[in-house]
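Appendix C reproduces, verbatim, an entry submitted by the partner laboratory led by Prof. M.T., so that reviewers can inspect both the input and the predicted structure.
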Amino acid sequence: MIRNRTPRQIRRFRPTFVPLENRIVPTVLTFQQGVEGTTDGTPNGFFYASTHDTELQTVNANTNYGTINAISVDTQDASGLRQGLLRFDDVFGAGLSQVPVGSTINSAKITLRISSSSDVNAEMGFYRMRTNWSQNTATPNSFLPVAGVQTDGIEAESFRDFNVADTTLTKNNIFTDIDVKSSFEAWVGGTSNFGWLVDQTGVNGWDFATSENGTVVNRPKLTIDFTAPAGNGAFKFAQGSYTLPEPDAGSKSTTLLVSRGGGLAGAVTVDYTITPIVGSATAGVDYDNTVTTGTLTFGANITNQPLTIKVLGDTAIEGPEAFKITLSNPQGGASITVAARGLRDLSEREVRRKPYASMGIDYGLARTWLLEYEADVIVA
């Protein structure tokens, strides 16, 4: 027997809605020449067509090889010195298949198809380019006065963003991943994306497929995991090294970028201080100390601001000298990434018979990174 209930006897369920905290979900994009890209593993309708890659052969210093299907990197070959150049354009922007400027780069890798192995201890490295180039026109003589790209901090960085492991160098017909997170961290903060120089010290060529390769799956593939900007952001130095010729007299200016990532909302500021390191560079002698403190202001949606430094020239033979640049006192809701600290090394070294001064930036990964950098400066 079913008992009828009056309206007062019926319990009504009233759900309670509790708002969840805001969550920013990472996104993964892929880019490969002639292939439909993916967003979080799902095809996004965008067919990528902006890879640049070419080979430089010093024996054929005026010949462009932008249409070859594989690049061979070798220091001793019938074609002389062989270097590789590689770049992915149109990665950053407001499109659904692009990385927004100011994003946080969680990871970034290039997958290459290797068709010819090299030797152990070949020191195969990917150096961030500092000079623009095109696969349609680039030749060794595009980088005069010395044919080919120099890792001097002017044409390309003097340190590698990635060094290929010996266990990978000795294998043929494999796919291998190149970690380029540090490159994209610099570029997303406002530094120009000129791609990479691929170079080595060994005498056995290391070959990888290009974007013109007839087998589509073998073409270089870029995968980026990022978190879109939200909030007011965090400050850091945009690039790991700054290098410029040191004059014999007078001064030489260089501009480093302080970048704002992770969020671009509202106007924010950050202070900077330039101070000498005891026993190293001398203020007013090795670098200009007219202005040693200041404040950088970022408007809404502004990702970077320049900070100009002057190195003072002389003809003295000197050892490594350094001073530091420190960011502090972020305002407007922004913060500072780890321990953002600039370090300029004024080592005089012979590159193309000229002394150079170089600047490195330490993000708090100090010990290992600085040891590698000091070795690069001293040995060069």
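DSSP finds three helices and 24 strands in the chain. Additional entries are available on request from the coordinating office.
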